[in-house]
Amino acid sequence: MWFFARDPVRDFPFELSPDPPEGGPPGPWVLHRGRKKATGSPVSIFVYDVKPGADEQTQVAKAAFKRLKTLRHPNILAYIDGLETDRCLHVVTEAVTPLKMYLKERAEAGGLKELELSWGLHQIVKALSFLVNDCSLIHNNVCMAAVFVDRAGEWKLGGLDYMYSSQGNGGGPPRKGVPELEQYDPPELADGSGRAVREKWSADMWRLGCLIWEVFNGPLPRAAALHNPGKIPKSLVPHYCELVGANPKVRPNPARFLQNCRAPGGFMNNRFVETNLFLEEIQIKEPAEKQKFFQELSKSLDSFPEDFCRHKVLPQLLTAFEFGSAGAVILTPLFKVGKFLSAEEYQQKIIPVVVKMFSSTDRAMRIRLLQQMEQFIQYLDEPTVNTQIFPHVVHGFLDTNPAIREQTVKSMLLLAPKLNEANLNVELMKHFARLQAKDDQGPIRCNTTVCLGKIGSYLSASTRHRVLISAFSRATKDPFAPSRVAGVLGFAATHNLYSVNDCAHKILPVLCGLTVDPEKSVRDQAFKAIRSFLSKLESVSEDPSQLAEVEKDVHAASSPGMGGGAASWAGWAVTGVSSLTSKLIRAHPAAAPAETNVPQRPTAEGLPTPAPTPVPATPASPGHWETQEEGTDTAEDSSAADRWDDEDWGSLEQEAESVLAQQEDWSPGVQASRAGQVSRTSNLAAKSPESDWSSWEAEGSWEQGWQEPGPPEPPLEGTRLASEYNWGGPEPGDKGDPFAALSARREAGAQLRPDSWGDDNWEGLETESRQGKAELARKKREERRREMEAKRAEKKAAKGPMKLGTRKLD
């Protein structure tokens, strides 16, 4: 029977790359690229082929094999595996590149920064300090060829072929026999006796000086060139001169050299080195120190090398989240580093962390995720969004913190394109109905209407028909003026989603009622919307063949492009209402005609300046919410839609003045006396017990249908038509807004409609003034007091006075 020996090289779990060798240090070793057969992960393989008659060189190679296998230090080349046979030696290490080749590649790409060089030299000196002070070993081969760089830009010390013990055991230094390496020997070794060496580290520190010279100036031609520092930074020159001094006694210990370079103003005293040192010891740092470090890290990442951020900072951030208590503070640097990753790397490293973060109950983390969703939304696939992200995000609609509710509403603009039928048309609409009808924050109700107008094109045809008109009609009855503006603009932005019958019978009656709104900004937008819808109806009336073209999107399936034609003439931005209202309700430029002579509210501080437009002679009250005009500068509008992070989104967490203290303050008289008190956050009347959202179907549903408006009332005596009103000219100072009184008289006897805001009677707020209600309450209290006195008198007269000592039985 024949037995065949197995080839150990063939069974080795690593294989050499077919690419040509990269080269390596002068000597017996040849450096190859390689990979692990099981995982495909890249490695470096140093190969030595045993040659007959080269026993001394073989012994040197085997000694290097043993040293590399037993020495473990972060700054020494990391050993992974090895193979030793009679024919060859294979040493597998982490994937590295020779420093000489690395510097050449970086020089072609623009060169290395001093930050990178300072940290690289810091690592080599630290490795020498470990060998000399902790292991009592002399490297004896410090040069450019003995230094390697990994994928994170970390410098590693290799070339351990000629290492020997400083304590004398094991013999003296081995003979190199390689002229390229012997040129780095110090001058005191020229006699060959080595008697001039006074300190064990003197020779290695001389070679370190040669390495520093080559890093900044290129290959060393001869030893005499060391006297000219060349391009070595001035902060490093004094310490460099100590290394290449002729007297070996003055050459510093590696540990002291590091200490000198780390002194204030030293070459290695910079933010990059401090960051690396902190990351090396992050596991033993206190939680408070970690929090402070991650907070300051994002400011420095822009100046750090890309490879360092990807391969060193990112793993530490992921580890801090997985096993530490870093929390939301790591999100900003995490997403900043994520910009350096490819789409595949982002899916593998960042997305699993983001998905896990959404299930956190930490409010700070949730709100930061919502604020920065734009940075990672493109990497999320639809199944992940619907099954792992959206179920956690919707809890924000019910949060007691208004800031989280606001950010949750904003996030729907990004999530809507990836939501499935059930989440978008059922679950999301349920929460939007509740927010629009029951939320006590005016800006959030306004934002809900805004978002609905922007995502309307993603809804199914049946949902659009059932929801949009009812929702925007409800918004027009909101006591918060910007919400009413948002309702009008919602109709305008989704005009292509309504049939001509809906325009004539449902939308125009609602808009016509707003032409007498107390707020001029609402009236202005209402008139513009009415003209737009009337022109649409008129075009169909003139040419009935256009009906199919006009209604092509009404019954079409959901499509992101259907809402893209939302009229830019509508302004679609209410300045100062909230960050979302001022940013996201900008439609793309469309063919709809632009209206120019519309007053413009002064831009709030921190918000983008709108395009200049002609202003009427009568300026609008500064306390009223006015809308931005976008028709005059379409270029600004088209670019503004992409500037998500360039503007101030604001926060509902900041305290601001309330729009009005109580609901009755919405009467026209009180509005006139409180002009200028409208702020971004509106604290309306206190929440009633009925507003706990336990049954949204009963009070917050959009399925209550539309009620046909009643017959028009005859115009009151002295009433002017809208066409007769002097929109541009000044009004006499003693006359108030003619629409305020007209609105109060018109709504006095109106009945609540079924699609009004639940149990709250907003129309009553417009019919009674504060003075009238106070007088009515006083009269009621007086009548009640007289009734109680009369009852007491009757009771006393019927029973008579009680005698002393008697007991009252009844």
From TrEMBL:
Biased composition, Acidic residues: where in the chain? Answer: 644-656, 757-766
Q: Which GO terms describe its molecular function?
A: ATP binding; protein kinase activity
Write down any Gene Ontology CC term: endoplasmic reticulum-Golgi intermediate compartment
Q: List localization entries.
A: Cytoplasm, Cytoskeleton, Microtubule organizing center, Centrosome; Endoplasmic reticulum-Golgi intermediate compartment; Golgi apparatus, cis-Golgi network
Database matches in InterPro entries = ARM-like, ARM-type_fold, CIK-Related_Protein, Kinase-like_dom_sf, Prot_kinase_dom
Q: Which GO terms describe its biological process?
A: vesicle-mediated transport
Question: Where is region (Disordered) located?
Answer: 14-35, 588-810
The record's annotation in SUPFAM superfamilies points to: ARM repeat, Protein kinase-like (PK-like)
Q: What is its main location?
A: cytoplasm
Q: Where is the composition biased (Polar residues)?
A: 674-685
**Residue spans with biased composition (Basic and acidic residues)?**
767-777, 784-797
Question: Which segments show compositional bias classed as Pro residues?
Answer: 18-28, 609-619
Start and end residues of each Protein kinase domain = 14-314
Pfam families, per this entry? Pkinase
UniProt keyword terms in alphabetical order: Coiled coil, Cytoplasm, Cytoskeleton, ER-Golgi transport, Golgi apparatus, Phosphoprotein, Repeat, Transport
Q: Give the family, as the similarity comment puts it.
A: Belongs to the protein kinase superfamily.
Its job: Regulates COPI-mediated retrograde protein traffic at the interface between the Golgi apparatus and the endoplasmic reticulum. Involved in the maintenance of the Golgi apparatus morphology.
- The protein's name: N-terminal kinase-like protein
Name the gene that codes for it: SCYL1
